Amino acid sequence: MARWLMLDVDGVVVNGRPGDGGSWATDIERDLGISPDALQSVFFAAHWDAIVTGRADLGDVLEACLPALSRSVTAVDVIDYWFARDSAVDEAVLADCDALRAGGTRIALATNQDHRRAAYLMDRLGLGRHVDAMVHSAALGARKPDRAFFDAAAVRVGADPGDLVLVDDTARNVDAAREAGWRAIHWTKGARLARLVAG
């Protein structure tokens, strides 16, 4: 078994909206009066890379973008709505994490996240009780699939690349991890983590 099992979050540990697994923004126009297309173009396309690599603050950017999206909600309203609805935890994955850790495997979340959602995932959603660490893109200054993410993540957990196994649902990230010298497994929904890493 490798020294560290590195798990992607969205698509592996967390799967969208509780109840149906849909996108957190499915009903945002009905609930907050924000067009999903406008949110994509005004906020995500223009600013997400800076936010997710730690060069800009999520709340500050949202506040600046809101006049073009809605005049009736605040940045805090949007963030609270987003985080609460992007929170369907795969309990089977967490159970496998607990079992693997009990057997001596160290587990880290290796994920593209801004600082605020990273803290929410670990503390409010409780993922921190099931893993040993999180390495997230905003803290590393690089995002998957960039090579810099994988190099920095290895340094952060104090492991050689060959001692790391990534489980990720995005093929580009799996390929990039392998190019960085990690082992990597492409996750598909419904798989069992313990079985995958034992194979």
Automatic annotation (TrEMBL):
Pfam families: Hydrolase. Transmembrane segments: none annotated. It comes from the Bacteria. SUPFAM superfamilies: HAD-like (SSF56784). InterPro entries: HAD-like_sf, HAD-SF_hydro_IA, HAD_sf. This is Haloacid dehalogenase. It comes from Acuticoccus sediminis.
